[in-house]
Amino acid sequence: xxxxxxxxxxxxxxxxxxxxxxxxxxxxAVSLLISLTYSWSTTSAMxxxxxxxxxxxxxxxxxxxxxxxxxxxASIATTFDGYPLAKKGLASQAIALSTIMSVIGGFIGILFLxxxxxxxxxxxxxxxxxxxFLVSLMGITLVGSIGxxxxxxxxxxxxxxxxxxxxxxxxxxxxxxxxxxxxxxKSGINYIVAMIGLFSISEVLFQxxxxxxxxxxxxxxxxxxxxQQIMKYLPCCIRSSCIGTIIGALPxxxxxxxxxxxxxxxxxxxxxxxTPFGEGAFEGIVAPESANNAAIGGAxxxxxxxxxxxxxxxxxxxxxxxxxGIKAGPTIxxxxxxxxxxxxxxxxxxxxxxxxFGLTGIKVxxxxxxVPKQILFPCVLVISIVGAYSxxxxxxDVVTTVIFGIFGYIFRKFExxxxxxxxxxxxxxxxxxxxxxxxxxxxxxxxxxxxxxxxPLSIIxxxxxxxxxxxxxxxxxxxx
Amino acid sequence: MKKIHxxxxxxxxxxxxxxxxxxxxxxTNEEINATSPFFLPTIIAxxxxxxxxxxxxxxxxxxxxxxxxxxxxxxxxxxxxxDITSLYMIIIILGYILLMFITNFRISTILFLCLSMVYxxxxxxxxxxxxxxxxxxxxxxxxxxxxxxxxxx
Lengths: 480, 153
Known about the structure:
The structure holds two protein chains of two kinds. Chain A is 73% helix and 1% strand. Chain A is mainly alpha-helical. Chain A has a two-stranded antiparallel sheet. Chain A is globular. The N and C termini of chain A lie far apart (53 Å). By secondary structure, chain B is mostly helical. Chain B starts with a helix and ends in a 6-residue tail after the last helix. Chains A and B meet through helix 2, helix 8, strand 2, helix 10 and helix 18 of A and helix 1, helix 2, helix 4, helix 5 and helix 6 of B.
């Protein structure tokens, strides 16, 4: 038991700081651990992996809030309101609130895993190619809600992102697309490399015009939210956590889509926040942060019960279980029920440690924003470049990240948002493969469209899609 | 050049890029159907054409809606400017990558940090800048090479 507590604590603490470094993904950290845990007991191996997973998903929010640079793709939505809060000197309060809401979100995800696993996995197995395609399209409709003045520009950037995501070998036919015979382009452009350039390098270049400005003094008094504040944001947290768990349970979706959808839903649901969304609304950090941590519980549902990974980290966890001789799948509840309960317990412990590690050191961490920009910016650039290199240990990734950084800077200057581009890149493969697979399944586009408008689950998703699209239209936004 | 002119020019550039992309797709001699790898890119290329035209229309409407005097006043305040500091920094970054390719991570990073800090002028003297650059570089080497087992270039 003590061994389990120590390993979970170490994993969570490491995860918080690993997650905060752009380019060092939780997937990378967990995959590094797998080689170390061969000779360990199942409990110790799982304890450290679950700890890194929980801490890492949360850790991305720290750099997102303080530097406008998401440490992980799941924290993209946190930048929209997190950074404006830091600019108001409220970085500490934002981090403290995001910690508490991440923990609550994590616990809601665990409850779903414990009590709703069977029902959710039955639902997840029903979801076919066309439903995945519709869910991905819903993701694209989010561009209107992520602090964009012109929806046309947002959709254009998302389309550019989809095209960039199509670069490489086509997963269905294995033919090359937009590779121009180049070896590097054949493996496609990694969206994490692009994200580092678009968020981190372009942000530094964009802010260089104000390099001489004095850093914003951070308010480090009363950083921990009181009971009333927690209760105020609790409904938002519960809503977002439910969304996070369900989206996270769809194989391949992960925390990034959950966080963006939760942010969008909260924006539609909460029409009168104290501060408008995009200008430093606390709801804007509560929604994505609770959703991405709740998605952990969600992602583990198909991973443990069906043997289908919800995201890349759960895929590695399935592998780690196999190394220990445990097979994830429908039989886990009967043959290895103790392992299932152990994972649930580890998640609970990791979330408790997350609360401890998340709430300590905030004052020191938030002082990072007060470092003079003349010193901070070169350091951020170096960390971004090293982060991009470490994704694949490839020097060309560094060049790619800088190219994306320069393009991101130019696009931002012309008021074209960069976040939809990353969103498009993330969703590109899901849209492409599921759209084409669904058409091939039904024989023709006509039959595919008929199926979409006749099958119950698809009809529900189509209705949700059109409602979301309507909510993004300029006239609807104007009325709000 | 005024802000609105630059914006129109930029949207025209995007339209040209869009035409090049469509041209590339049609030159692949692939039959465009669900099995074709260019099925989604073709659809997206058409959608981006429409969006680019809409953005151009938005910009033109903005151009024609404003009276000349208003536009002059507005453009004085908000003209799109590429900050010279950013342009120099891009050159420094490109030099850093080139140096990293020629030499190694340690030397190039120390030089990059020193050069960029000297250029951005923090309230530090040369000695302090060098010590800081050295410390940051070796801290990163420690984190990435010894903890994450990433061999830096």
